[in-house]
Predict the 3D structure of the following.
Amino acid sequence: MFATIRRYESVDQSRTAELVKKVDETLLPRLSKLPGFGGYHLIKAGDGVMSSIGFFDTSAQADESTKLVSSWVREEKFEKLLPNAPKITAGEIVAHKTPELVQA
């Protein structure tokens, strides 16, 4: 599995509610239709910083998600809301742990 982390700085804090709403309504449906989609999380870190992490089966699929997000930002005209290009970290997940499901 591969992950892509995007860190956005200098986010217009007066518009974060608008951003979250649009992510839910228009970005997540598109991301979830990409092949290999394994999940997405948006993190509000405060002080104008927001990060996202997306999970995909392959590196190529993760790269495709970055292209989709970049196009989405332009389509939604969020260049002023997200004035700086994100700092992107991407790579293979080499260790992970999830909680085990407990059956009743």
